[in-house]
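sry for the spam today, last one i promise. struct tokens for design, 94 residues
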């Protein structure tokens, strides 16, 4: 059994005036197993090294890894966001 690469840290740069629900990006963790044992799920998590918790400003589809904005965002207020993503086996409890 192989473990997904966890955690993942990404930096998100947004355009001006991004609306709620805007598609940002998609991440993908790959496991060497096949079938159910190879399915990976995703979760946004607090970043212990960053006092500002940018993860709350986004949502992730736990199955596809697609990341969307969870609020309207203005680049003039904040240009860069730091997000931590945890990936785990779909058939195991977190």
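last one done:
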């Amino acid at each position: 059994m192989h473990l997904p690469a966890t955690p993942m840290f990404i930096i998100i740069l947004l355009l001006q005036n991004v609306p709620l629900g805007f598609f940002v990006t998609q991440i993908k963790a790959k496991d060497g197993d096949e079938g159910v044992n190879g399915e990976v799920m995703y979760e946004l998590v607090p970043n212990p090294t960053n006092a500002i918790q940018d993860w709350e400003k986004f949502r992730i589809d736990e199955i596809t890894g697609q990341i969307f904005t969870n609020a309207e965002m203005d680049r003039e207020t904040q240009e860069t966001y730091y997000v931590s993503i945890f990936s785990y086996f779909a058939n195991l409890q977190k």
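Residues 55 and 83 are 5 Å apart (CA to CA). ok im logging off now
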